[in-house]
Amino acid sequence: MTADVTPSPWRDRLTSLDSTVFRVAATHRWPGAEQVLPRLSRSANHGLLWFAAGAGLYATRSPRARRAAVRGLVSLGLASATVNTIGKRAVRRARPLRDAVPLVRQLKRQPLTTSFPSGHAASAAAFAAGVALESRALGALVAPVAFSVAASRVYTGVHYPSDVLAGAALGVGAALAVRGLVPTRAQMPVPARLTVGAPRLPRGAGLVVVVNTRAGSPDRVRSLRDALPEAEVVECEGPALADELEKAARRATALGISGGDGSINTAAGVALRHGLPLVVLPGGTLNHFAYDLGIEDVRDAYRAVELGEAVLVDVGRWRTECRDAEDGWASGLFLNTFSLGVYPELVREREKWSGKLGGRLADVVAAVHVLRRDRPLLADIGGHREPLWLLFAGNGLYGRPGLTAGRRTDLADGLLDVRTVRGGGRPSARLLGAALAGPLTRSPFHAARRLHRLRVTGIEPGTPLAHDGEVAEAGSVVELDKMHEALTVYRPIDV
Q1: Rounded to 10 degrees, what is the CA torsion of 394, 396, 397, 402?
Q2: What is the pTM for the complete model shown?
Q3: Pairing of strands 232-236, 254-259
Q4: What tens digit of pLDDT does each residue of 189-227 get?
């Protein structure tokens, strides 16, 4: 018994249309294309063009551009793998005949794989779509290049138009699939920040910005003066920062700071004492507070200053017994984190590895590198004395549930994010177990609590404590609490 094979009219029409469009593209003379498109097509072999573009975006050191580069390359990898493992094996279509394609256009090395779908078009569309999902502006810059690469495959005679369209659709689908697994910044929950009005400062009138020249750059100062020409800019070295901020606060309507998290911490204390709103211009290495606030581009801060848009944020507060202080206590603030134990070193190590290995694996490597501590910290928490390898308290709840903190979406939740790793005879097993555990409730060593205040006693005097990257010495007692919605910070409402 034989199967009855019925011709498909619609398939025949599509095939005919595909061939017609291919011949038109092959025979039509496109001004300037002969010098550009073949070279562009070759440059995209094995994704080299897109890897170079990704490296260029990453080198800008802009967080948004770096996220766009990573998302674009991951999307490219997924699209390429799908084309090579499924697409070309499922539809074994022969390459088009090149008789109508002028020799000057043809590639020197013709592809040996099947024609459907186009891997170059898939990679180009995946990278461009991935970049655009993180940054529309960067996506608009990449899209014309991606379109040209896809078009070059028909122009050089190695693909039918339908091959290119299918590859492009697959590439966009890969970018959307990656977004489904790893949401973009725009998909994250809208931060529950209380918005408030702040003084409008057209052209920066009334704003005094202190720039820590150790953390800032000449370009940042020029950008500030160009965007807000009536703002006063004071440049100083790190040791003079606190004095310059105090002087600036006496004559300012709003106080600005350009520097890293430690500089911003100092400026926040001055702004609180003088009742001034704060302008944060990230200029350090990590810039945790600025990025969690939503200020990744200094132009966002400039716009907020002129519009008078601001939010209220919490400020963490610590104090510890100190014999040298007049009232017997030393104190300070933290906008990001406070820690005792090995956490400061753990964070430093994690930052070295996170870009190469990813968050969870970076936790593990960092834990291995901090196992040089001889013994755990002994402390009383809630009336129970226990050994601790580390104690961490965040100003607001951090989203990532691993051993070290991730990102906050609410800087005014009134809570301390307290995390501890209990001590014991095997620090390596405990730290690595906590790093690998994932959700905190699964780890027998790693505990998390959400508190309004914390009191830790029985600490060995001289134990290092860290707050926003600065280090001090703890006394036998340490107390933490929050000043809820205490600080006004300029920030555009639509960021």
Answers
A1: -20
A2: 0.64
A3: unpaired
A4: 555 456 778 899 999 999 999 998 876 566 778 888 999
